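Issue 218. Parser rejects a valid record. Input:
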Amino acid sequence: MRQPIAAIGERIARWWSRLDRGERRHLIAASTLGALVVVIYVLGFDHRLAGDEVGYDGDARLFAEGRKFWSAEPFAVPHPSAWKAPGYSTFLGVGYSVFGASPKRIELIQALTLAPLTVLLCWLLAARLFGTRVAIIASYLTALFPLSWEFFGLLFPEALAIPLLLLALNLMIDRTPTPRLASLVGVVLGLNLLVRPSSAFLFATAAAAWIVAAGLRGGLRATAIAVVAAVLVVAPWTIRNAATLDGFLPISMQDAAGYGTFNDEAAAEDWVWRPILDDPPSILERPDLAAIPEPELHAELLADTRSYIREHPLSLPKAMWWNGVRRFWELRNPADAIAEADFQGRSRGVRGVGLGLYYPILALALAGLWMTRRRAAIVWPIAATVVAVAFCFAAIGATRYRAPLEPGLMILAALAISAIAGRIPIAATAGAGPRRIGLPRRG
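Output the parser choked on:
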C-alpha cells in the first residue's frame, strides 16, 4: 500500500516542481479564494435544510447511529433502503460519525476540501488543453462563480459530483486510451453513478473522446472496458439491494423518477417533473403502498414510464428539449429558475447573481467552443456530452442538475477571455495552444 501512495506523491511532487513561482501563487490564491467564498457563504447565509437536503440529513443521522444505508423516506418510517444513490449519504454519514451530526460542520468541511479540489482539477484540465494562462483565468472563474461553488455550502450530492466529473474529464479528454486508463476511468464513472445515477451521460463523453483518439474499434474497446469496470464498482451495492430489499434495483429509486415527467399532467406544463399527480400510476394508489418493497415499486414505475413513452413516442424528444436543453442550459425565463431556490434551500440572491453572470459566461463559452472547432479531441466529446445530457436529463425538470458541468463552461469561457485579453485572433487558437502544464498524458 505504501508503494502506490509513494508513487502518487512523487508524481504530484514532479508536477508541482514544473510550475513556476507565478503559477504556484495563482493556483494557491484561486484555491484559497474558492474555499473562502464558500466559508463566508456557510457562515453568513441563514440556511435551513430544504428539499432533498432534509432526506440526506436524515439518512446520515441514521448512518451515524449504526443503521447504515437506512432511510425514513418517503413515509417517515426508518428502514433499509435504496431510495437515493448511496454515495453522498455515505459521505455525509461518515462525516456525521466523525464530526457530529451538524450540517454546518459538513458544509465547512466541503468548503475547505471539495471547493479547492474543484479549482485544482479545473486548473489541471484547462492547463493541459489550453495552456497556463487559460488555467489561471478558469480557476478564478470557478472559485468565484456562484453556480459552481454554492453546492459546497449545501447538503446536496453535487458537492461530490462536481469534482468527480472533473476528475473523469481529466482522465478522458484528449488522451489515448490504454486498458489501464480505461479501467481507471470506469472506476471513477462507477463512483459518479453511485453519487448521481444521471452521470451515465459521461460514458458517451468517454466513447467520443476515445474514438477520436484511437479510432472506432479502439475507442469502443476502451469504452467497453470502462463500462465493465463501472459495473464492478456498482455491483456490490446492487447485490446488497437484492439481498436486503429482495429484488433487483441497480442503484436507487431515483432511476424511476421518469413517472413524474412522462404523463399527461407534466406534458401540459412543459414537461416539468411532478412528484405528486392527480392521476398517478396505479401502484401509488394502493393502500399498502408503504409496505411495497422498493424493487417492486421501482419496476412498476419504470414500466409505467416506458408504457407512456410507447403510447406517446413524441414525449421523449419533447421532454429532452424542455428538460435536457431548455431547463438544463437555462434557456427560459430566469425568474422561474430563481423561484426554485426556495424549495432547494438556496439563497435567492446568490442564485440571482449566478444567473446574471451565467448568460455572459455562456456566450463566452460558446465563443471558446468555436475557437476549438478544429480540435476534434475536444469538440466531439463536448457534442456527445450535450446529446447524452439531453437524454439522461429528459425526466429531470430542475436546473440545479446543471451544476457539475459549470467548471467546463468556465474553461471554455476562460479560453475566450484569454484570447480577447491577449488580442489573439480566433483562428490562431484553433490548433495547439501555449505551453501545457498538468497531468502527464497516458498512452
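Fixed in the parser; the record now loads. Residues 22 and 28 are 10 Å apart (CA to CA).
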